[in-house]
Amino acid sequence: MPSFASRAAMVPVTRRVRAYFAPVDRASQTPTIFDPGKYGIFPLDSPPAPWLDLGWIENFARCSLTPSEPVRAGIRGAPAGQFRGSLEARVEFQFREWGKLQMALAGGSEHLNVLASDPNATAQPSGGTPLSAVAVLPGSSSREVIVGAGAVASFSPGDMIAVDAGYQQQTGYVGAGIAAAYVADPAAVNRDPDYVRRVTFNLGRVEQLTATSLLLAQPLLGGAPASGWGVQKVVAFVDREGGSFFQEWSALFVAENESGGRICLHYPRLSSASPARASSAAILEREQSVEITRPISALALRAAFLAMPYTDENDGQIAVCYRSYFPAMMAALY
Asked: For the chain, what are the domain ranges?
């Protein structure tokens, strides 16, 4: 039998949980898969594409709402077996960092880029008529957007930009690389030629300028932009209560080991949802103030998700979450 000392390494010890999200192909409903055998110890500071690091989270809570029902038989109706009822699971937590993706996931619906507006445009809460887009030229990459000698002067280091196609009155999911919204009727978005860039996740921060191009601090999530796409300056992000679109992403939550093993919780498909415990006033808060030292506080974004089903190809079983445990070196196995 293992000694008490050897069993101590079986206790996972962690300080915080870290969140990683990756896009779901909405058209085919294909998620991004975390394979614990392929990845091994997931590199927290340099996650493999398409996983995106959304930082440390707090008050992480997940709950299974799937009931187990007995099958009764015999004269006295004694349990003879069990079956699972309606499959349902939820996840809730707080983002401690703010960004485009964190706000989109916490808001739940379409998330908008506030494009730099024409000074004479009619005021709109999600941004009025923007300044005209600058065309992307051939040879651009995910880190360098070529716009030409004349257009470079319209941008400065530090600017945020949206890079995507102009809206061509198409229907369905829109957004380069990641579905950012769903258009059922072109009239619903006023046939706005800039609509895709209003919602796209294909954003960059200008780090440097060359004579003809914009060099970005991080690669565009949608990859190299096509010639003829547009570039527009973004001044802020905005979300809103309401909207018919539901964000859906693959998620991985990692409890990093301070001593002992590491725990990874993989949800192939998470869809933004209302909180499970709606009766709690604290849970209903969209932002929560976290005191640092009076009078300074940090604002945390609260997010809630409904786990969507995934069919495991190994045996055809339907699942919503996978929990992986990586034991510490030489730890007892049971």
From this structure: 4-108+246-326, 112-238
